[in-house]
Amino acid sequence: MKNSIIPNKKEVILWSALDLMTKNGFEKTSVSQIVKHAGVAQGTFYLYFKSKSELVLGIAKIIVEDILNKANSIICDSKTSLKSFIEQITDLVYEMTLKHKSLIVFCYSGTAYYSALNEWDELYIPYYKWLYDKLIYFKEKGDVSADYDLNYLSKYIIGLLEHGAEQYYLYESIDSNLETSKKTMVSFINNALKIT
Cα 144 to chain center, whole Å? Predict the structure, then answer.
């Protein structure tokens, strides 16, 4: 078996915890059950996590890292318009929200048990930086107003896109229209940024 196929122990613990907590709930799942399900010693759990509630942050980190890996594949060069870029990141956020729907639901249900907001924000720093760097590029091209603080703008855009995608995939009725949701989101951001 190749090394790249074998998940590391931390991932095994995370996925085992997710499996058990999805079935039994957060409170009814013990660390003992998690390590037994993962096939690791109890001490191994505490090498990676201080407590059961810290698992929520670990799962959130998996989601953010996956999104950022995918985001890095978005082409942003001299031929890319800001309007096209906004469409691409909207597609990305919706796609990744669908992919990680069950994990996102788990994280939201687990935030009541893990509320260290500064650590949640730290997870997003590379993601915000990625978008900030792209916005700098478009600002230098004259596509983004010099009046905008790009630190805030990158956070606002990511937050808005995530909210829109989660609203669609987690709360909307079955007869909702995905393309209408995405088109409305892109139109809103384009209008806010005065993109024609």
Answer: 25
